[in-house]
Amino acid sequence: MKVPFIDILRYEKNFYETVSEKTSALLKNGHFVGGPIVGEFESALKNYTQTEFAMGCANGTDAIQVALRAAGVQKDDKVIIPDMTFWATFEAVVNVGAIPYTVDVSKETLHLTTSAVKEAIEKFNPKAAIIVHLYGWACPDTAEIRKLCQDKGVVLIEDCAQAIGVKLNNESLLSHAFVATTSFYPAKVLGASGDAGGIFTKSSQVAQTAQKLINHGRTSHYEHGFIGWNSRLGAYEANFLNESLKHLEARLDSRRVVCEQYRTKIKNPALKFIAPASHVKENGYLSVALMTPESRPAFIEYLKKHDIGYGTVYPGAMSEQPGATGHIGGKISQGNADWIAKSVINLPCFAYMTQEEVDFVISTVNNYK
Ligand SMILES: Cc1ncc(COP(=O)(O)O)c(C=O)c1O
Question: In angstroms, what is the span from residue 206 Cα to ligand 1's centroid?
C-alpha cells in the first residue's frame, strides 16, 4: 500500500461537479476578478472565523505584508518573529522595508512563549511582533502575548496560515486577534485551487487601509491614496473556497481523528508525539512527532521503503537561512528552533484519509526497530 503525505483531491461527493458548474457560470457572466462571489466568500469567512472584518487577497505572504503595512509598520521598523516558521513570515517583514528579529521558540510547545516575547521586546524595542500558529495548533501563550503587546504598545500580527478552524478556549482563534492573516494555498486545510490568502481584523481602520492596499492604494477608481499593489482575490478562487468552506468542519474532523489516532496508537519509543495545549482545539493540519536528530534519517529511509509519505515542517530555523544574511537585525536563540528542525517528523495527514491508510501507517511505524 502507498500512503502519500497529503492528497488534496479527496473531495466530497458532488464537490467537483458543484464547483465546475459554478465556475462555468462565472466564465459566462465575465466575473473574473471581484464580483459578487468574492463578497459572498468574504462574508462566509467572516462568519466562520467570528471576526469583525475578513477579506481575501492573492496569497498568504501578501496577507502578512498587507497586515504589516495596514497596522502601521514602516521602513526600518523592527519586527520580532519566531525562529521556527515558514520563510514567508521573514520575507514579508523584509518586503515591507522593516527589519526582522528572530526569537527562539520553546522545545516543549514548539511555539513562542510570553517570556521570550517579553525578553525580545525589552532587548529590541520593536514596533511590531508576529506570532505564528503552526501545525494547525495555536501558540499556547496567545492570550498572554496579546496582553503583553497591548501593554507595551507593540503591534501584534498573527500568522494563521496553518490555523483556520483552530479554537482557543472554545472560541475561534482569529476572533480576538488584532490583525491575523492566512494562506489558502491548496495544501492548507482551507485550500484554493491556486494561490489565495486572507486578512482578518477587529479594527475598521486597519480593514479600510488593507482593502485599499490590495487594490493599488485606490481611494476611488482613479484616485490612489497609497502605494499599494495588486493582491486581489480572483473570482474562481473565491468560488472554489466558498464551496470548500461549506465542507470545512467535516474535513477538519476527519483530520483531527487521524492526528489523535497517531498519538494514541503509535507506541514506538523512537517517536514522541506532541499534542496541542489542552486549551487549544487543533484543526488537524499536521501530525507532529519528535525524534532524536541522529535517529531521524534512518526512520525517513524506512518510511520511503514502505511507500509512506512524510514531512519535516520545517527543516531549518529562519535565522540560519542563507537568505537571512544582510536582512536579519538580531536574534535571541538557545538553538531550540534548529534542534526542532532536525528532530521533527510529520506522518501522512489529510482530509478523508481512509482507516485502512491510517492503520497501515500506525502498524508500519509500530514495527520500526
Ligand atoms: C506559517 C506560514 N506563513 C505564511 C505562509 C505563506 O502563504 P502563501 O504560500 O499563501 O504565500 C505559509 C504557507 O505556506 C505558512 O505556512
Answer: 21
Task: Record the pTM.
Answer: 0.98
Atom of ligand 1 nearest to the CA of 197: 10
Out of 64, 166, 185, 241, give the residue to mutate to test ligand 1, the one with the largest number of ligand atoms within 8 Å of its CB.
185
Residue 13 identity (one-letter amino acid)? K
| Other beta carbons less than 10 A from residue 361's beta carbon | 26
Of all helices (H) and strands (E), which one includes residue 36?
helix 36-49
Q: H-helix or E-strand containing 82?
A: strand 78-82
Q: Which residues contact 229 (CB under 8 A, 6 or more apart)?
A: 62, 213, 214, 216
Is there a single domain that holds both residue 228 and residue 272?
Answer: no
Q: In this structure, are 30 and 40 located in the same domain?
A: yes
CB of 60 within 6 A of ligand 1: the answer is yes
Q: Which domain holds residue 361?
A: 248-366
Q: What is the pLDDT of residues 215-253, one digit of tens each?
A: 999 999 999 999 999 999 999 999 999 999 999 999 999
- Taking the alpha carbons of 250, 5, 287, 257 in that order, is the dihedral positive or negative? positive
> Which residue's alpha carbon is at the smallest distance from atom 8 of ligand 1?
60
- pLDDT tens-digit profile of 35-84? 899 999 999 999 999 999 999 999 999 999 999 999 999 999 999 999 99
Residue 179 burial (10 A CB sphere; 0-12, 13-18, 19+): buried
Cβ–Cβ under 8 Å, residues 155 and 131: no
Pocket test for ligand 1, best of 57, 183, 231 (most atoms within 8 A of CB): 183
159 and 221 within one domain: yes
